[in-house]
């Protein structure tokens, strides 16, 4: 028929053209299909969304730093738009943040109104002494040389910014539960931000003050960061040494009082006595904390006044160094800077020596031979970025946990297959006379945990 | 030149052909480029990998159940091949599983050799009684009517299969720490698989037996699942009621002994006395646990013998119902099936009534008016899939946590802004006489926590 219209030759050419055109068309269609795939087939996103997804797709597959959490959320968002996630049973398809849309930060109230951590209290020792006399069933000493201690730690009410963070917080509190059970110490795990102005490293201050005033039966409050783990389950603190002190931190007198070095002490693990002196210290400590202008300005002062301090907003540790160095006569005689054992131990100098410690020593020393605490300063496992390589941080946190956990497991005849392994193996066969089996470390029923029995 | 070879017409045709060919070629190249994108540009994966990635890509963007964790790992694997993740400080770029390559499951040893949970012990009451006489400093009763209790719970040594799972495990143990601190109960959080054969819901048995035999000072062991939370912080268990019982579970006599209903009791929260009777029960309970053939076959028996039980491998709860129903005379007189309060409370019937409870009652009842425990049966927050919509599970777990947490916060003058909010607000101003402020629930210094002071 074409022949009749154009004549045979033109017809043949047209056919050829048509034939090539088919291939062209096929290719175009294929191209579009695949492209649509990347642009989120099945939904019609806004151009911005589409662009964002193309970008992500590129990042993912070009190996550039794609940020899983975000990719994750986008996948989930995509999913929510296609399937009704409110009815899915698949955790992968649900974005937890959907549950907390209302959770933006509080706005600071009146910026002119000065910050107060609470009403001034000047007679706490009298108030507390009276209460203790009235409540003999809640003694502040469990036995003549062992004070009642409350270990306080905590983490954000939100999930971590990276998925494994919460798993390490879980391991970290399990580790603390173990040490505290063995040593008869109570735990308070905080997940609430009591004072929006004191967010970050300053959040511990309002919490600590509140707990001291609410628990007169507590003699010492032991603050411990969530990224610090007990690595010596057998070490009992030398309470006798602190009988005349109100604040015990790991540190060195020269570095703090002479050098004013911002790392002359560490506030990741410290003891604070429940007394008026401590309330007064908190009153002097807290004013640098309120976030925004105050904290930033204070940071400049601290960087100027202290040795080697980088430029950043005021932190509780630098503030403490500055207070002790600048008001030595007021505080120093009640402060004990401990370095005979690791009340806080920097992980960098400890974690690679665990095997050596196992070969040469045993738990109970608390010092370089077997550190009481291994503190993962700078790893920020609950954040997006740390100051150290993530692989080293996570690997070493597991090693520290297992190193401490082996001391718990040995009580029951088990041990980790290696410091790098989550799995455990038996170290002895079960006995039909289990009570005759002695745990080498004597952690099952340690003397320092024994209770006084009424002389009846 | 073509003209000279073919003559002008053929040449023109050839040009046309070439021209169309160009378009075709362009399309093909474009297609391949985009396809290569999906196949992981920049790296040359094996065909299997490529296929896997195409599949994932399809799932992701077609809104089918894409599994973030896996997508995540693939993105990270991709990343690792291009950038050196061992030196990254970005948690998003690191795959935690890289740290545990050696961690595959143990292979069952000799399948012919019968399973044993440990050497037979027949004189535990004598052994334990002797030990208690020798160790008066570790009494099994903290006061005449309050036994020493060890709450046992735990979770897998691995991170959860979904990223938010670990965050809820963390909230769940914080919740237990709070109840146990107030009620003077010790906690053992297990993260070790002591017996590879008893993985899953059976893992608690070897653990419980080990703890009973290692801690003769413990009178009652309280098992609690990781997905159960305390929602009444003021309720103290009626210990007097159990003085002649060895096992206390939430349940109903008729449903267990008459109906043989597999949900006639719940093993997510139960009390077990430290005595020979309990060891004997465990010896009868455990044999259905070993994974593989035994557990599967036992599952068939249980589904056949019990009312309404779905078809699946043997679980510890069904096994307990079956033991009690089939050997009533042997065990029943020492078992207390509790339903006067929620030792275990199914979340489905409780979580939507929290507001009503707040309006009409107060903590301390432990029953329908204010449940002691809210147990998220079937939500499997640490798994990939739950039996219920994820959004409802997560939302209600947060409500349950906050409902319980409000009772802790009120001691310190705070409360959650709502049961749906992670944020808190003040309920009263701080006082300069903090000890005069009474916490309505009297949880700061409850009578049941008071210690006996030596009559000196």
UniProtKB/TrEMBL annotation, chains A, B:
It is found in: Golgi apparatus membrane. It comes from the Eukaryota. Keywords: Glycoprotein, Glycosyltransferase, Golgi apparatus, Membrane, Signal-anchor, Transferase, Transmembrane, Transmembrane helix. It is a single-pass type II membrane protein. Its EC number is 2.4.2.39. It comes from Deinandra increscens subsp. villosa. The keyword tRNA-binding does not apply. This is xyloglucan 6-xylosyltransferase. It is an enzyme of class 2 (transferase). GO terms for molecular function: hexosyltransferase activity; UDP-xylosyltransferase activity; xyloglucan 6-xylosyltransferase activity. InterPro entries: Glyco_trans_34, Nucleotide-diphossugar_trans. Gene3D superfamilies: Spore Coat Polysaccharide Biosynthesis Protein SpsA, Chain A. PANTHER family: XYLOGLUCAN 6-XYLOSYLTRANSFERASE 2, XYLOGLUCAN 6-XYLOSYLTRANSFERASE 5-RELATED-RELATED. The keyword Membrane applies. Belongs to the glycosyltransferase 34 family. GO terms for biological process: xyloglucan biosynthetic process. It catalyses: Transfers an alpha-D-xylosyl residue from UDP-D-xylose to a glucose residue in xyloglucan, forming an alpha-(1->6)-D-xylosyl-D-glucose linkage. One of its GO terms (cellular component) is trans-Golgi network.
């Amino acid at each position: 028929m074409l022949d009749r219209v154009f004549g045979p030759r033109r017809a043949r050419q047209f056919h050829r053209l048509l034939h090539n055109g088919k291939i062209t068309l096929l290719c175009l269609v294929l191209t579009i299909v695949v492209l649509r795939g990347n642009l989120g087939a099945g939904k019609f996103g806004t151009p911005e969304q589409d662009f964002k997804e193309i970008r992500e797709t590129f990042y993912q597959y070009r190996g550039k730093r794609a940020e899983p959490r975000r990719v994750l959320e986008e996948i989930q968002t995509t999913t929510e738009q296609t399937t009704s996630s409110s009815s899915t049973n698949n955790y992968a398809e649900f974005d937890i943040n959907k549950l907390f849309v209302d959770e933006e930060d509080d706005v600071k109230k009146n910026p002119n109104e000065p910050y107060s951590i609470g009403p001034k209290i000047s007679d706490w020792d009298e108030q507390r002494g009276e209460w203790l006399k009235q409540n003999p069933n809640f003694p502040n000493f469990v036995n003549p040389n062992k004070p009642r201690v409350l270990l306080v730690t905590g983490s954000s009410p939100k999930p971590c910014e990276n998925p494994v963070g919460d798993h390490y917080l879980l391991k970290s509190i399990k580790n603390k539960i173990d040490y505290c059970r063995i040593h008869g110490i109570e735990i308070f795990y905080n997940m609430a931000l009591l004072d929006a102005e004191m967010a970050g490293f300053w959040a511990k201050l309002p919490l600590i003050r509140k707990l001291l005033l609410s628990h007169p039966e507590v003699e010492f409050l032991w603050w411990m960061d969530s990224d610090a783990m007990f690595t010596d389950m057998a070490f009992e603190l030398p309470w006798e040494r602190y009988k005349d002190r109100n604040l015990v931190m790991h540190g060195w007198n020269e570095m703090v009082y002479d050098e004013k070095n911002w790392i002359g002490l560490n506030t990741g693990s410290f003891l604070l006595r429940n007394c008026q002196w401590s309330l007064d210290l908190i009153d002097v400590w807290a004013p640098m904390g309120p976030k925004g202008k105050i904290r930033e300005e204070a940071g400049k002062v601290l960087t100027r006044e202290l040795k080697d301090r980088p430029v950043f907003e005021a932190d509780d540790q630098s503030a403490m160094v500055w207070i002790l160095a600048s008001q030595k006569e007021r505080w120093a005689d009640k402060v004990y800077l401990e370095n005979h054992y690791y009340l806080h131990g920097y992980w960098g100098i400890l974690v690679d020596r665990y095997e050596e410690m196992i070969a040469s020593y045993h738990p109970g020393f608390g010092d370089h031979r077997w550190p009481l605490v291994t503190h993962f300063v700078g790893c920020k496992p609950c954040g997006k970025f740390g100051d150290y390589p993530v692989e080293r941080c996570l690997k070493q946190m597991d090693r520290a946990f297992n190193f401490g956990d082996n001391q718990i497991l040995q009580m029951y005849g088990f041990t980790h297959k290696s410091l790098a392994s989550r799995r455990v193996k038996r170290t002895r066969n079960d006995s039909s006379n289990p009570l005759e089996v002695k745990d080498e470390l004597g952690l099952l029923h340690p003397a320092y945990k024994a209770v006084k029995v009424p002389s009846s």
